[in-house]
Amino acid sequence: MNDSKKRLIKGNEAIAVAAIDAGCRYFFSYPITPQSDIPEYLSRHLPEVGGTFLQAESEIAAINMVLGASAAGARAMTSSSGPGISLKQEGISYMASDELPALIVNISRTGPGLGGIAASQGDYFQATKGGGHGDYRTIVLAPYSVQEMYDLTIKGFDLADKYRMPVMILADSILGQMKEPVAMVGKKKSTAIKKDWALTGCEGRSPHVIKSLYLDGDKSIEHNWKLYHKYQKIQKNEVMCEIKDCKDADIILIAFGSAARIAKTSIEMAQEKGIKVGMLRPITLFPFPNQQIEDLSKDIKKILVVEQNTGQMVEDVLISVSKNAKVTFYGKPTGNALEAEEILGQIEKLKNKKGFNR
Amino acid sequence: MKQVFERPESLKEVSFHFCPGCHHGIIHRIVAEVIDKLEVRTRTIGVSSVGCSVFLYDYFNIDVCEAPHGRAPAVATGVKRVYKDRIVFTFQGDGDLAAIGTSEIIHTANRGENITVIFVNNTVFGMTGGQMAPTTMLGQETTTTPLGRSFIGDGYPIKMSEMLATLEGCSFVARVAVNTPANVRKARKAILKAFEMQVNNMGFSFVEVLSACPTNWKMSPQDALKRIKDELIPYFPLKIFKEKTIPDTL
Fold first, then answer.
1. Of the candidates A166, A348, B162, B247, which lies 20 to 30 Å from A305 by C-alpha distance?
2. How many domains does the structure of chain B reveal?
3. pLDDT tens digit string along A171-210?
């Protein structure tokens, strides 16, 4: 990588720049903190490349504009935060069933309810278990650096097109507001796919229909299995995670996103003290790295899960680990972010502990 | 012998599933005739709503996208922003457009989005089995107003055309009915005008069509026609509320 091509940029802006680099030309959203840098950037820069920025009257309207633009075959996107993402879930469910690609960014905030604007990972369940009504999933990408905010936005558009489904970026205000140097290579990385299913007007072909209503029982069952098999294929082919220093480790720390970023410092501090601790960082939250966690947990029996919530991803870790592994959870429903020292304290405590609570 | 009546090319060769006396079929046909007349079938994209009109794609011989309940104008906005040269229309009932979709219809109209909306007002939620709609008449018995709609608690029947006509973004707003052959002809003229507005990039166009729902009104088709004439039209007058002749420019 040529460092001279790097730009010092905010996480939220990295997402906006990446969207343009990925060929996204349609952005619809509604203002909410702490994601507003994304629409503000795109309102200025999308028109410069012939794109459309539209500030919708509501979160619901915004996601349905994305639905329409996607149905017409365009790369389309929206961004929001916690409560706004809740409002978009109806549209996300329709798009999952319609098999329409789109990128949805959640710069999440604390909840429930109006909560606050501090970084939080309380939207993990909503993001990874479907979120809206019905039996579906969205691919969920969890960046932990500004570079990954850029790279995973590009990747998200490609995955959405490849599997014809909504893809979500799950980040928070720590990742959205911090500035880091980013290498911008998206134009080379992204691959647009021909969408022969799109609605373009039926010139020279029979009409296309995009719908999610299946009143016929057999067809409804068939459609749900079709979606399921797609998700199985994604589980098999698209898992991404970072595994670091896990060889010979006594403890594995599992965390994603901003919690992983903070825990990285804690791990370095622990290693300086001679504690053998490694990290597994899920980058895709759906598909979840179940197999990678199971494999690691066969040899390393002490597992520490750290989240900025009261315990959500830990449930996926628990169903992944091998029988003898002991899982300890340390969580903090934020308002104030996790601190490296408090995670270090947990690592030290775990090192000296003989019995563990699952 | 000269053939004087035939199926529009924009309709598929299938029978409508609508109840006896329902006006959806007539309104579908008018829209299809207009699309044929303007020769835009292969560059038209329809957006269906939730309710009896969801099955638009079973009848129209064009590309169609289904929208969530009330969201058709937002979906149509997305489609139209991608394809400015295509003809995009929504087809929505009164439960869809005047209740859950009030926000979307108002703001799409206010933006002057260059689409056409066909609003079927039969004063009741049809598909879900006859519950009160915002357009339900005072005194009208529905499954959720068993004693008849009262303005105390339920409010008054909402007049969408009158409301939308106040918005600058609208190029054309009209209310029509299809209860008599003469009214069918007027309805066709208004719907043609609405689509022409879009073809000429004049901005948002809207036609409300008073429609019969004999099943949920618990009436014969004949009595339903009489009700439109005696009860609905006096409260929901048939007229052109707005017609722009010059497009908005910067």
1. A166
2. 1
3. 999 999 999 999 988 666 777 789 999 999 999 999 999 9
Other CB atoms within 10 A of residue B2 CB: 3
Whether A75 and A162 share a structural domain: yes
Mutation target for B interface from A100, A206, A209: give the one with most B CBs within 10 A. Answer: A209
B75–A64: do the CB atoms touch at under 8 Å?
yes
* Average pLDDT of the segment spanning A223-232: 98
**Distance separating alpha carbons of residues A254 and A149, to the nearest angstrom:** 20
Q: Is residue B43, in this structure, part of any structural domain at all?
A: yes
Q: What is the CATH number of the domain that holds A67?
A: 3.40.50.970
| Chain B residues close to A209, C-beta within 8 Å | 57, 63-66
DSSP B145-204: BTT-B-HHHH-PPP-HHHHHTTSTTEEEEEEEE-SSHHHHHHHHHHHHHHHHHHHTT--E
Alpha-carbon distance of B64 to A206, in angstroms, equals 11
CB contact under 8 Å between B78 and A91, yes or no, is no
pLDDT in tens, chain B (250 residues): 899 999 999 999 999 999 999 999 999 999 999 999 999 999 999 999 999 999 999 999 999 999 999 999 999 999 999 999 999 999 999 999 999 999 999 999 999 999 999 999 999 999 999 999 999 999 999 999 999 999 999 999 999 999 999 999 999 999 999 999 999 999 999 999 999 999 999 999 999 999 999 999 999 999 999 999 999 999 999 999 999 998 877 6
The pTM score is: 0.96
Please indicate if any CB of chain B lies within 8 Å of the CB of A50.
Answer: no
Cα four-point dihedral sign A123, A129, A132, A137: positive
Specify whether A33 is located in the same domain as A172.
yes
DSSP state of A282: E
CATH code, A334: 3.40.50.920
> Taking CB atoms and an 8 Å cutoff, what residues of chain A touch B74?
56, 60-62, 64-65, 67-68
Contact yes or no for B45/B26 (Cβ under 8 A)? no
Which of A52, A61, A210 is nearest residue B81 as measured by Cβ atoms? Answer: A52
The letter for the amino acid at B119 is F
Number of separate domains in chain A: 2
pLDDT number for residue A5: 77
